Protein 1
Amino acid sequence: MKEYFLFFGISLSIIMACHTPQVVQQTPVPKTPVPPTQPKPYAETNALYQQQVQKYAERLSQTPLIDTFGLAQPPFWVGTVNFNMRRPNFVIIHHTAQTSCEQTLKTFTLQRTQVSAHYVICEDGTVHHMLDDMLRAWHAGAGRWGNITDINSISIGIELDNDGKEPFAEPQMNSLLQLLTNLKKAYSIPTANFIGHADIAPTRKDDPSVYFDWKRLADNGFGHWYSETTDELPADFNPSMALRLIGYDMRDTTAVQTVFKRKYLKKVDFRPLTESDKKVLWQVARKFW
């Protein structure tokens, strides 16, 4: 009997040895280092944006409405159910006249500068949407177009990263055209209402510069251009009246003529309009009839 148990024990040991799973030594997988969280460069000014928006939201939610004129009020308030947000009807194009996109972003996030825009388009085509389209940016200043004297209240401002001394980059122009397409569709902005900062402020501004391709914009439905200049001028053609018809503020005729020639003739010229200049003006003005 002892021999039996001895034989059984030896056999069991052999079987277990044959079936005991091998323990495989695994090489530990190195952990991917997690980069430290980078602080958002405009976190502080973004918070200021939120605070300002919240103030306006609180005002809009007040009922009854704030008494603006101090007139006699009825014993009850009635709010209309038919309203929406005001929509922009113009687009004003600028060049930044600064050295980089980053410099412009900093300028527009410093409260002391008192300037801003809805969009900034960098040279590489990156688009920074800095302000809701329905809100009023401070980009046009003391501009005038036709009878409109508060351009900021009815327009969207677009700043192109360009110092005014060089052509505009192709990626930047492509982004601009796409943005203008979206804005025109979203707000039904008329073709004639895509203009430049110099158009509304001819005595102060020259942007976008002589390098800006206004014809390319017009070919895509943003602004008007002339087709041919072979027609004879009407005998009673008045250049000042034609410029006024387009929308220019004619308090300084020389400044306006200079802006017109920079935009449509691609030249910086402070002299009076020539006969060929007048033919171009005639063709452009006819688009505004």
Note: The chain has a mean pLDDT of 88.
Protein 2
Amino acid sequence: MKKSLFCFCLLFSLIGFCSISLYQNPTIDFYTWSQKGKLNWSDFKGTPDYKSPEIAITASSVEFSYYTKGTVIGWQVIAKYFPDRSWIKKDKQSPYVLQHEQVHFDITELYARLFRKRLKESVKTSNDILMLKSIGKDILRDWQKTQDLYDKETNHSINEQKQAEWNKKVFDQLQALKDFAS
């Protein structure tokens, strides 16, 4: 049986984000989107970088793995949140900022659902491994663009009208893809 794992991890914040690539490490504490539900400030356990302009960082990832046995293929896609890599400057905590960070994690789940949907529609046998990997690259690219657009349009939550629009938009998209939930 052949087994592979790919992980895409993005760190998001109120003032910007950077992307990193991370391979699964079983010693890293995480929550899956379905396990966690809504984030709380107690979930931001990392040490803040007070030299950084960011107010908060939400570390989340879309991870997928697959296996093959003959022509049979199986796969798994998970949206994860990493509390030890997520942080907030304690003097900046507010329910409004927390909601902005929650939407970053919700976008992660949204792209996990889109990934599951595309895999279910397109990947049928082990002959489709290249397609699976291509879909993964597309998802990562689109996920990064969406996270960038979210922060740009909301001005990292400063634009309250746009923040409210994004809150609804992401909620509605998650509802539309509920059949592909974690």
Note: Confidence is low (pLDDT under 50) at residues 1-25.
Protein 3
Amino acid sequence: MTRRVVGLIVVLLIAWGGLAAATAAGLTPRLGLDLQGGTSVVLTAPDGTDPDLLQVATDIINRRIEAFGEVQEPDIAISGDDTVVVQLPGVEDEQRAIEAVGQTGRLSFRPVLDAIAGLTGPLVGSDDPNIDPATGLTLEDSIDQESYLPYDSGFGPQVLLVGPARLQGSDVADAIPLFDTQSATWAVSLDLSSQGGDLFADMTADAAGFPPGDPRRQIAIVLDAEVISAPQVNPGVSPDTGITGGSALITVGGAEDAQQEANDLAVVLRYGSLPVAFEISAVQKVSATLGTDSLQSGVMAGLLGLALVAIVVLVIYRSLGLVAIVGLTVFASLLIALFGLLGEWQGLTLTLAGVTGIIVSVGITADSYIVYYERLKEKIREGLPVEEAADEGFKLAYRTILTADTVSLLAAALLWALAVGAVKGFAIALGLATVLDIVIARSYTRRAVALLARSPLGTGGWFSIEGAAQ
């Protein structure tokens, strides 16, 4: 008896306390485009595009969106074999959204003029309109001017002062990752166009005029105002000629992730900004008002459904209905807390389809209670005492609950694997809710009904468990 009371209290504390803690920490569910308003852009790649290139393109778009400044929790995902869906909650300027995801961007090779250790540049507090006074970094980078840009060299963060571009992505003919057996390191073999080879020779000759270890011997490879790499010119390069022949070898290193780093750098060098020539297939704008109305309608539908379920179970199952109502609050608390945590940790977004999945899951959870209560009533009618009927009824009902929930889980998994777009949100919500239903039935419902059966509401009067079985 005591163990069941303690276990029930723990379950309630985890559910209600977890929701309170998540809310206090600001871990509320992330709202999708259809609930918050914003702009959606659908990009279509040419037929036969390599899936790896699509993934690289989404990563580049994601970095570009982060620099957009107005986007709250963007959702960028590959849909099908050739489509990327970019959802920008809170962004209502369609033209800026299109520019952010569809522009070509610029890849440039720029001389490093200075390197400052740390996360802030030397111009902190400057009144220069293009310098962030808090960080000392350049606000809007231009390849034709000097800029202070952040760079993580692998040995700690730095701020690099880079000069105007001496070479651009259009001068790169090819870039291939390879493993250098002599030095046992990964590298990128760079081939340049005829014009690019001459420009690169001049640039590396200037850099080679500085001693090894001097930051001015580095050449920064910059993509969309982000320093992708800043290799140093090899000590053996002559300052009179530089690196000639239209080719070069950029050493990445021998770390555990060096191969992936070399592959990523090669793709950036080979394709410039976006490795895929996307066509903008559709642009959809959802107003904030419409998003708010959708959210309010979804919440209202969910609350109305809960209210109707509560009335029905109270009328039919009497005191057992109280267990179901409290159980639904446990279910709702855990589900909301889960969406908040997964939104923070995994970027899970709650969409209108997800809200629909949650509403459907209320019916699944209520059905689990009904299955159990009907089994319990059957056992009472067979002559078993209420306490024993509660235990036996749960054993029989739990098999049915597991079977039904397994079917729901399989359906959710298939929907998530095969469907695209908003249907995935429905599948995720349905899957999470179904798992919670199994857990709650075992950890909460069984204990709560067993304790109720041993209380005065187990056998006394119309509102009791025994009264509901008559």
Note: The first strand starts at residue 30 and ends at 31.
